[in-house]
Amino acid sequence: MEIYLLRHGKTQLTIERRYAGRTDTDLCEEGIAEIKSKMLNLHPEVVYVSPLKRAKQTAAIWFPDAEQIVIDDLREMDFGKFEGRTSDEMKDDPDYQKWTENNGLESCPDGEGLETFMPRTDAAFREIINDAKKKKIKDCVIVTHGGVVMSIMSAFMGEHKPPYEWFVKPCGGWHCRLTGGQKSPVLKKPQPINLAEE
Predict the structure, then answer these.
(1) Are 35 and 173 in contact (CB under 8 A)?
(2) What are phi and psi of 49, to 5 degrees?
(3) Where are the domains of the chain?
(4) Separation CA 91–CA 115 (nearest Å)
(5) How does pLDDT run across 48-100, given as a tens digit for each residue?
(6) Which CATH superfamily includes the segment(s) 2-197?
(7) Whether 189 contacts 176, CB under 8 Å
(8) Rounded Cα gap, residues 94 and 97, in angstroms
Protein backbone atom coordinates (compact mmCIF):
# COMPACT_ATOMS: atom_id res chain seq x y z
CA MET A 1 0.00 0.00 0.00
CA GLU A 2 1.17 3.51 -0.83
CA ILE A 3 0.78 6.09 1.94
CA TYR A 4 0.45 9.83 1.26
CA LEU A 5 0.71 11.87 4.46
CA LEU A 6 -0.18 15.46 3.56
CA ARG A 7 -0.24 18.70 5.51
CA HIS A 8 -3.06 21.18 4.93
CA GLY A 9 -2.58 24.54 3.21
CA LYS A 10 -1.83 27.87 4.83
CA THR A 11 -4.10 29.70 7.24
CA GLN A 12 -3.71 33.26 8.45
CA LEU A 13 -2.26 31.87 11.68
CA THR A 14 0.32 29.92 9.65
CA ILE A 15 1.38 33.09 7.84
CA GLU A 16 1.66 34.93 11.17
CA ARG A 17 3.66 31.98 12.60
CA ARG A 18 1.17 31.46 15.42
CA TYR A 19 0.68 28.16 17.17
CA ALA A 20 -2.60 26.69 15.94
CA GLY A 21 -3.36 23.25 17.26
CA ARG A 22 -6.91 22.96 18.56
CA THR A 23 -7.85 26.32 16.99
CA ASP A 24 -10.29 25.47 14.19
CA THR A 25 -9.37 28.06 11.59
CA ASP A 26 -10.17 28.20 7.88
CA LEU A 27 -7.66 28.28 5.06
CA CYS A 28 -6.75 31.82 4.05
CA GLU A 29 -7.06 33.12 0.47
CA GLU A 30 -3.32 32.67 -0.10
CA GLY A 31 -3.55 29.09 1.16
CA ILE A 32 -6.48 28.27 -1.11
CA ALA A 33 -4.72 29.78 -4.14
CA GLU A 34 -1.54 27.84 -3.36
CA ILE A 35 -3.40 24.53 -3.05
CA LYS A 36 -5.20 25.12 -6.36
CA SER A 37 -1.91 25.90 -8.09
CA LYS A 38 -0.22 22.76 -6.71
CA MET A 39 -2.64 19.97 -7.52
CA LEU A 40 -1.68 16.35 -6.91
CA ASN A 41 -1.94 13.67 -9.57
CA LEU A 42 -3.90 11.39 -7.26
CA HIS A 43 -7.52 10.31 -7.59
CA PRO A 44 -8.47 8.48 -4.40
CA GLU A 45 -12.01 7.31 -3.75
CA VAL A 46 -11.61 8.11 -0.05
CA VAL A 47 -9.41 10.53 1.88
CA TYR A 48 -8.78 10.28 5.62
CA VAL A 49 -8.92 13.73 7.19
CA SER A 50 -8.54 15.56 10.47
CA PRO A 51 -11.82 16.94 11.88
CA LEU A 52 -10.43 20.50 11.71
CA LYS A 53 -11.64 22.76 8.90
CA ARG A 54 -8.26 23.56 7.39
CA ALA A 55 -7.59 19.88 6.67
CA LYS A 56 -11.09 19.15 5.35
CA GLN A 57 -10.98 22.24 3.11
CA THR A 58 -7.58 21.23 1.71
CA ALA A 59 -8.81 17.70 0.98
CA ALA A 60 -11.94 19.07 -0.73
CA ILE A 61 -9.82 21.19 -3.12
CA TRP A 62 -7.24 18.50 -3.92
CA PHE A 63 -9.68 15.59 -4.06
CA PRO A 64 -13.15 16.98 -4.84
CA ASP A 65 -14.62 13.60 -5.82
CA ALA A 66 -13.31 11.66 -2.82
CA GLU A 67 -15.34 10.67 0.20
CA GLN A 68 -13.86 12.24 3.33
CA ILE A 69 -13.51 9.92 6.30
CA VAL A 70 -12.97 12.03 9.42
CA ILE A 71 -10.60 10.52 11.98
CA ASP A 72 -10.91 12.53 15.19
CA ASP A 73 -7.44 11.63 16.48
CA LEU A 74 -5.80 13.13 13.38
CA ARG A 75 -6.36 16.58 14.93
CA GLU A 76 -3.28 18.67 15.65
CA MET A 77 -1.58 18.84 19.04
CA ASP A 78 -3.35 20.99 21.63
CA PHE A 79 -0.83 23.74 22.44
CA GLY A 80 -2.73 24.89 25.52
CA LYS A 81 -1.67 28.35 26.71
CA PHE A 82 0.59 28.70 23.64
CA GLU A 83 -2.37 28.59 21.21
CA GLY A 84 -2.65 31.64 18.96
CA ARG A 85 0.68 33.10 20.11
CA THR A 86 4.01 33.46 18.33
CA SER A 87 7.41 32.43 19.64
CA ASP A 88 8.40 36.13 19.74
CA GLU A 89 5.41 36.92 21.95
CA MET A 90 6.43 34.14 24.34
CA LYS A 91 10.21 34.58 24.37
CA ASP A 92 10.09 35.74 28.02
CA ASP A 93 7.49 33.19 29.13
CA PRO A 94 9.24 30.65 31.43
CA ASP A 95 6.74 27.92 30.49
CA TYR A 96 7.51 28.38 26.81
CA GLN A 97 11.27 28.54 27.43
CA LYS A 98 11.11 25.25 29.34
CA TRP A 99 8.99 23.62 26.63
CA THR A 100 11.32 24.64 23.78
CA GLU A 101 14.47 23.70 25.74
CA ASN A 102 13.04 20.18 26.01
CA ASN A 103 12.13 20.10 22.27
CA GLY A 104 8.42 19.98 23.12
CA LEU A 105 8.75 16.68 24.96
CA GLU A 106 6.83 17.94 27.99
CA SER A 107 3.16 18.87 27.93
CA CYS A 108 2.14 22.38 27.00
CA PRO A 109 0.48 24.05 30.01
CA ASP A 110 -3.26 23.31 29.68
CA GLY A 111 -2.50 21.33 26.52
CA GLU A 112 -0.83 18.15 25.26
CA GLY A 113 2.67 16.77 25.23
CA LEU A 114 4.29 14.11 23.08
CA GLU A 115 3.57 11.50 25.75
CA THR A 116 -0.16 11.72 24.93
CA PHE A 117 -0.02 13.16 21.39
CA MET A 118 2.13 10.42 19.85
CA PRO A 119 0.04 7.47 21.15
CA ARG A 120 -3.08 9.28 19.90
CA THR A 121 -1.71 9.76 16.37
CA ASP A 122 -0.24 6.24 16.42
CA ALA A 123 -3.71 4.82 17.12
CA ALA A 124 -5.26 7.01 14.41
CA PHE A 125 -2.77 5.77 11.82
CA ARG A 126 -3.39 2.13 12.75
CA GLU A 127 -7.14 2.72 12.48
CA ILE A 128 -6.65 4.18 9.00
CA ILE A 129 -4.44 1.30 7.85
CA ASN A 130 -6.96 -1.28 9.06
CA ASP A 131 -9.82 0.49 7.30
CA ALA A 132 -7.84 0.99 4.08
CA LYS A 133 -6.89 -2.70 3.99
CA LYS A 134 -10.54 -3.72 4.43
CA LYS A 135 -11.47 -1.40 1.55
CA LYS A 136 -8.53 -2.71 -0.54
CA ILE A 137 -7.20 0.80 -1.04
CA LYS A 138 -3.90 0.97 -2.93
CA ASP A 139 -3.22 4.70 -2.47
CA CYS A 140 -4.03 5.70 1.12
CA VAL A 141 -4.30 9.49 1.30
CA ILE A 142 -4.30 11.29 4.65
CA VAL A 143 -4.76 15.07 4.97
CA THR A 144 -3.87 16.32 8.42
CA HIS A 145 -1.47 18.67 10.25
CA GLY A 146 2.28 19.18 10.43
CA GLY A 147 2.59 17.81 13.96
CA VAL A 148 0.56 14.72 13.10
CA VAL A 149 2.66 14.02 9.98
CA MET A 150 5.85 14.33 12.03
CA SER A 151 4.51 12.10 14.80
CA ILE A 152 3.39 9.32 12.44
CA MET A 153 6.64 9.39 10.47
CA SER A 154 8.69 9.27 13.67
CA ALA A 155 6.67 6.36 15.06
CA PHE A 156 6.47 4.17 11.96
CA MET A 157 9.66 4.78 9.96
CA GLY A 158 11.72 2.66 12.31
CA GLU A 159 14.67 5.05 12.01
CA HIS A 160 14.34 6.45 15.55
CA LYS A 161 14.49 10.04 14.36
CA PRO A 162 12.77 12.64 16.57
CA PRO A 163 9.50 14.03 15.17
CA TYR A 164 10.95 17.41 14.11
CA GLU A 165 13.24 15.59 11.63
CA TRP A 166 10.09 14.90 9.56
CA PHE A 167 8.88 18.53 9.38
CA VAL A 168 6.86 19.52 6.31
CA LYS A 169 5.63 22.92 5.14
CA PRO A 170 1.98 23.63 4.30
CA CYS A 171 1.02 21.71 1.11
CA GLY A 172 3.90 19.34 1.84
CA GLY A 173 4.08 15.77 3.02
CA TRP A 174 5.57 12.34 2.57
CA HIS A 175 4.94 9.48 0.16
CA CYS A 176 5.90 6.09 1.63
CA ARG A 177 5.41 2.39 1.05
CA LEU A 178 3.67 0.53 3.87
CA THR A 179 5.21 -2.81 4.79
CA GLY A 180 4.85 -5.18 7.72
CA GLY A 181 1.77 -6.81 9.15
CA GLN A 182 -1.23 -5.26 10.83
CA LYS A 183 0.39 -5.44 14.26
CA SER A 184 3.74 -3.99 13.20
CA PRO A 185 3.31 -1.66 10.20
CA VAL A 186 6.45 0.04 8.93
CA LEU A 187 6.83 2.93 6.48
CA LYS A 188 9.63 2.59 3.92
CA LYS A 189 11.21 4.60 1.10
CA PRO A 190 10.04 8.08 2.20
CA GLN A 191 9.83 10.60 -0.63
CA PRO A 192 9.18 14.25 0.26
CA ILE A 193 6.23 16.03 -1.30
CA ASN A 194 7.11 19.73 -1.49
CA LEU A 195 4.32 21.18 -3.57
CA ALA A 196 4.68 24.66 -2.14
CA GLU A 197 8.31 24.83 -3.30
CA GLU A 198 7.99 23.41 -6.83
Answers:
(1) no
(2) -130, 155
(3) 2-197
(4) 24
(5) 999 999 999 999 999 999 999 999 999 999 999 999 999 999 999 999 998 88
(6) Phosphoglycerate mutase-like (3.40.50.1240)
(7) yes
(8) 5
